[in-house]
Amino acid sequence: MKVPRNMRQTAIALALCAQGAFSFAADPIMFSPGGTGLTGAIPLGMLDWLPGNALAVNGNPAGGLNVGSIIHLLSHAKLGVIVDQDGDLHSVPSGEITFVAGFGEAVNTFELTGTGSTTTFAFNSSGSNFFEIWWSPTADSNMLAGTGFNTGLAGTKRILYGVVTDSTGGYSGGSPIVTLDQFGPNNYPAIQTITGSGSTQLAGVIISADPDFFPGLTQAQIESMKVFFNTSTVTPYRQTNPSAKFVDYGVVGNTVTMSATTVGSVNGGFHASGPDLHFVLQADANQRFEQGEVIEGACRVTYGGNDKNGNADPNKFGPTCSELPNDNCYTFGGQVGAPTADKSKGGPFGEHTHNQKNGPAGEFTFRAGTHSAPKTTRITDTVCKDPGAIKPAEANAKFKQIDFEGTGSFNFPNSTAGTKAKNYLIAHGGPSDIGSANSSDKIYYFRVDMVDSGEPGNQFNSDPAVIAQCKSFLAADQNNPLATADPLLLDYVASGADCPDVYQILICPTDQPCDTPMYAVRGFLTGGNIQMHKVIK
After folding, report:
1. Peptide bond into 456 cis (omega under 30)
2. What are phi and psi of 314, to 5 degrees?
3. pTM score
4. What DSSP character marks residue 343?
């Protein structure tokens, strides 16, 4: 049998442990493995995960890997022990803690050896990018099945969420060809594997953490931290079972499978033709945290809310959408700029969803960069504007406004409201075939303009004079091209917190910027919040 030409590493065991060996000044990070807050919390030194699984989606392509080949890694594991800052070991008092993760890598170098090959990898922004730590009241994860790592019984909750910002690694493998599953009974008698080993070093940033498990941390502290992982990868499996399923971002359940069909009869084995195959490895990770450095001039945003088109009237905040049939009502949500908006680093990253709910434009969903959107959709550029944040947002950000643009796709419900939406878009310059299917891979240019005016983000000051100032600002703050300067909020309003946050979106008839969009809405938020953040290096 020919020795594989393409092996791969897959190290991700992205354990993203939740706070590691860092400190705020002299204060340790406290971790409560039972979710009881400061009661029973441990000064955290390190989280050490049990041997787990990693899968490189299409990591063994026909003809082998080449420099520049893109790989998407998925991984999961169960927490083994918690190491405190004195080096003492602690277990999870009840239930279990698990992680799921995924990110992209590109082949940096590839070299044939006498018995196989050696490949090195670098971080790539393609595909989903996430790490999640979950707690379940009952130990229901199953490594062989690959289930129960992000869903389970009642009470299961995500306790930490973040993204990978950088990775380096390598894998060397080849002869001999051996049995894949050498842990206990051979559950995969039809699959052999190349023999090899590798390692990966990962860096990431945290977006959110559950205070029951990470007590005493402010959101600003969480967002100024970086996490680092050191992961070893090996084939064959000797310390755990190979998993049959892997979870991708935003998916409840398991969507990527491992079998003789998806990895071939020899995991990592060279094949000159046929479909691209996955590659699986045993992955074992540990991790620590460090305080990061704020990148000056950069920003990111997390957001979610609901609105009514043209909403500059505080008297409209109470009525429901059904009471205002002439207004387009919509919800929106997402995050843009994490871990970076720097194009030289593969950015900008992010995902945006706009749900047109009812009104003249009917009902549709428009997505960019999300797991459910076509992979050709993405955020392509961002600009941070209006320096200086409004209290209390100033603890997290250094800007009041962010504009971003990209390409997205439509999904229409199979209903009267969906048909109404298609007809509306066509009547406003959209292509006649936009309604040929309820969803498609066709993409359209969009641009978003956001203003974070502080907290709570969806209320006016009751003073009529201040309301008039807010209206004047919104009238001036048009959703212009990113290179166009936006009006400064404090030039119109003495305290920006007296105005609600602002959300605007326009969608063009093609994948290029336009002067006349086929859909555009704008207004102050009637519910929800827009939150600007610093970017951590």
Report:
1. yes
2. -60, -20
3. 0.60
4. G
